[in-house]
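User: Teach me something about this protein's shape.
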Amino acid sequence: MLREFSEQYSEEGKLIMELMPAWKRWGYEEGIEEGIEKGKEDIIRKFLDKGFSPEKVAETLEVPVDEIRKLIPKP
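Assistant: First, the predicted structure itself:
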C-alpha cells in the first residue's frame, strides 16, 4: 500500500518512506518496554507464589510495595 502511494504521490511517498524506519524503531522500542514490564510482573508473581511477602518482594526488587499488592490475586 505504501509503495502504491509513493508511486502516485512521489514527493509525499518519498517522505513517508523516509519516516518508515522511525515508525519501526518506535514500535520496536514500545515492544521492548512492554516486554520488560510483563517480565517484571511475572517475576513478582513467582516470588509471591513462593510465599514471599509483598514487603519482601518490594524490598528485593526495589519497587513500591503498592505495585506488588496490585498483582496479588483477589480471593
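Now, about its shape. The CA atoms of residues 21 and 27 lie 10 Å apart. The first helix runs from residue 2 to 8. If you'd like, I can walk through any region in more detail.
User: That's plenty for now, thanks!
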